[in-house]
Amino acid sequence: PDYMVPGYFVFIDSMPLTANGKLDRRALPKPDVARSQQGYVAPRSAFEQRLAALWEQVLHVERVGLNDNFFALGGHSLL
């Protein structure tokens, strides 16, 4: 299901644990959404604009640039 597909990936050295050895979800870092928006290059040709519009629709993202990665934006082979 779509709600189980990660929207962002955050790489960390180790998982924060509680005193009981369980995952401490509150201690996990928040995704840096601003970082994923850096380096935006707008689609130029009609084909690029159409492809970007399709990605935006399928991936439910605000904008897609030329340098964006389908999988980094949450895409996968089942879409």
UniProtKB/TrEMBL annotation:
Q: Name one GO molecular function term.
A: phosphopantetheine binding
What are the GO BP annotations of this UniProt entry?
amino acid activation for nonribosomal peptide biosynthetic process; secondary metabolite biosynthetic process
A GO cellular component term found in this entry reads: cytosol
Q: Which residues form a coiled coil?
A: none
- Pfam families noted in UniProt: PP-binding
- Residues of the Carrier domain: 42-79
Against InterPro entries, the record matches this protein to:
ACP-like_sf, AMP-bd_C_sf, PP-bd_ACP
Q: What is this protein called?
A: Non-ribosomal peptide synthase:amino acid adenylation
